[in-house]
Amino acid sequence: MSHTAHIPSHRKPRRSASKLALRAGVAGGVLSTIAVAGAAGPANAEPVTETIEMPTLGALDAELASAVSASAEASQQEALDLSLRAQEDAAYKKAAQEAKKAKAEADRKAEAERAEKAREEARERASRTAERTTLSASASSDSSGRSSFSGETQVASGSAAAIVAFARAQVGDAYVSGGTGPNSWDCSGLVQAAYRQAGIDLPRVSSSQSSMGTSVSLSNLQPGDILYWGSRSGSYHVAIYVGGGMYVGAQNPSTGVVERSLDWDTPSGAVRIL
Length: 274
What we know:
The protein is α+β, with helices and mostly antiparallel strands. 48% of the residues lie in helices and 13% in strands.
């Protein structure tokens, strides 16, 4: 016999895996049933049965849909709240800007009203000042018998206008004894320069200037007349009448050239050269 001839095995044939699993499952089930029955109590006790319901796939889908819906509603509500807050913030910002603009406009109007009121008060003060000046120039005769001064507005013309304009243009200049301009004067130097504007040459000193022309009353003065203090032939001071009860003269070192009312320093007389 060949050494490769088939020799029957003495081993038992293997059972298939599926049959073993089946037998094991049956055995396990029998043993489990016996164990449960033994633990339940006496043989005559009725077995306890309990049904455990497992959720179905449909129920899970419904709960999931409900949760998703609730989440969507919450997100929508949050978005709505954010939108409302944004609208409220925008409305507040707009209201604040409008209030600021309204306040600025109110302040501007109030400032304009204050400025207009100040201008009106200034006009009233100027008017009262002019009235007082006119009243002051219209003084009546006093106990010494001096004549009253006319406060009526008088407009200079021709040569008189040139003399008055020049004299008033020097108001504010300094007084210097012997001064003949252009920025400092004494009384007769100013009168001489003013009359030169009308083409008239006057003497240099006050006493000679007051001796010229025709003597006129202080109540009948005209712009351009020469006022003097002291006697006509021996005057120590002269000035130019500019109308409205006012005169311009180089008074003294402390005042310089000024425009004053006749009542401030009443002259002794006047002469008319024009």
